[in-house]
């Protein structure tokens, strides 16, 4: 397979409330986005890497490039501008990859806000997708999850043993995923929160492989404090 990596980094980080998009916030001295790129670039050393960025993030992105080793920075394609939703940002990235002289056969899509993806996790997901066409990492949920209505009344309680909290990177055969994104957008399905959901919507079977509880998405302010603390502990 010819892999490309798409890092979605066009969000505003509203819940983190940091005053700048969270992916540009340094954690232990290195920005979250640079950490994510370092992790993926090391795990898939042959892959080209594309970031989807916010329309006003050009200067921040340029500064982030200086955090990367030059040989890794050279593997980055010029960034593509993201869209109003994560789904739209991925779509823009996939369209951009499809216009390359040699489009990838497989794509690994990662949230910029997950800087702790290990090489073994990335490679496990990629290997599963190379075999099956679509794979995502998931971990068992520890809370009991309820489905609720707008008023907060519980509609149902799915059996916890059947639930997984899924993460990124998510990996797919390229052409079917691009086709699924185009069909979903054309059908007005515009706010699916991960790419597995787009593939599922289009009728594909997506395999969940073993995720990693350390591969958290930095979302709220306290997640940043925890990330700093983790990186300052000697054994991690
Ligand atoms: N993302 C994106 N384009 C969007 C929205 C989100 O590329 N229009 C990216 C984010 O940059 C992030 C990932 O998708 O890396 C996961 O989204 P999330 O954690 O929700 O990040 P934000 O949307 O930035 O945060 P919030 O929802 O709190 O505003
Ligand atoms: Mg969001």
Total beta strands: 12
What's the CATH class, please?
Answer: Alpha Beta
CATH topology description: Spore Coat Polysaccharide Biosynthesis Protein SpsA, Chain A
- CA-based shape: globular
User: What is the CATH homology-level superfamily?
Assistant: Spore Coat Polysaccharide Biosynthesis Protein SpsA, Chain A
What is the straight-line distance between the termini? 32 Å
Task: Give the second-level CATH assignment, the architecture.
Answer: Alpha-Beta Complex
Q: Radius of gyration in whole Å, from Cα? A: 17 Å
Mean pLDDT: 97
**Low-confidence runs (pLDDT<50, min 5 residues)?**
none
Number of domains: 1
Characterization of the model:
It is a single chain. The protein is an alpha/beta fold. It has a single domain, classed as Spore Coat Polysaccharide Biosynthesis Protein SpsA, Chain A (Alpha-Beta Complex), CATH 3.90.550.10. It has helices spanning 32-43, 58-65, 70-73, 86-98, 119-132, 174-186, 195-201, 221-232; strands spanning 3-9, 26-27, 30-31, 48-53, 80-81, 106-111, 134-140, 147-148, 154-156, 164-166, 170-173, 207-210. The strands form 3 sheets. Strands 1, 4, 5, 6, 7, 10, 11 and 12 form an 8-stranded mixed sheet that branches. Strand 8 (147-148) and strand 9 (154-156) form a beta hairpin. Helix 6 (174-186) packs across helix 7 (195-201). The mean pLDDT is 97. The record marks 15, 22 as: Transition state stabilizer. Residues 1-236 are annotated as: 2-C-methyl-D-erythritol 4-phosphate cytidylyltransferase. It catalyses: 4-CDP-2-C-methyl-D-erythritol 2-phosphate = 2-C-methyl-D-erythritol 2,4-cyclic diphosphate + CMP; 2-C-methyl-D-erythritol 4-phosphate + CTP + H(+) = 4-CDP-2-C-methyl-D-erythritol + diphosphate. Keywords: Isoprene biosynthesis, Lyase, Metal-binding, Multifunctional enzyme, Nucleotidyltransferase, Transferase. It comes from Alsobacter soli.
């Amino acid at each position: 397979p010819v892999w490309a990596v798409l890092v979605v980094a066009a969000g505003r980080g509203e819940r983190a409330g940091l005053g700048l998009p969270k992916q540009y916030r340094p954690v232990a001295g290195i920005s979250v986005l640079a950490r994510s790129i370092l992790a993926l670039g090391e795990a898939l050393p042959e892959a080209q890497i594309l970031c989807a960025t916010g329309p006003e993030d050009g200067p921040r992105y340029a500064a982030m490039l200086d955090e990367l080793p030059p040989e890794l920075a050279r593997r980055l394609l010029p960034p593509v501008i993201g869209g109003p939703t994560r789904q739209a940002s991925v779509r823009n990235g996939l369209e951009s990859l499809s216009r390359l002289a040699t489009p990838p056969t497989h794509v690994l899509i990662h949230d910029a806000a997950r800087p702790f993806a290990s090489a073994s996790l990335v490679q496990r997901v990629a290997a599963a997708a190379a075999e099956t066409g679509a794979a995502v990492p998931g971990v068992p949920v520890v809370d009991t999850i309820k489905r609720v209505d707008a008023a907060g009344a519980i509609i149902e309680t799915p059996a916890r043993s059947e639930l997984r909290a899924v993460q990124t990177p998510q990996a797919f055969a390229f052409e079917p995923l691009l086709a699924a994104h185009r069909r979903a957008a054309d059908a007005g399905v515009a706010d699916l929160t991960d790419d597995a959901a787009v593939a599922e919507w289009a009728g594909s079977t997506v395999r969940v492989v073993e995720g990693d509880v350390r591969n958290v998405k930095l979302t709220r302010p306290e997640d940043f404090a925890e990330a700093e603390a983790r990186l300052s502990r000697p054994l991690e």
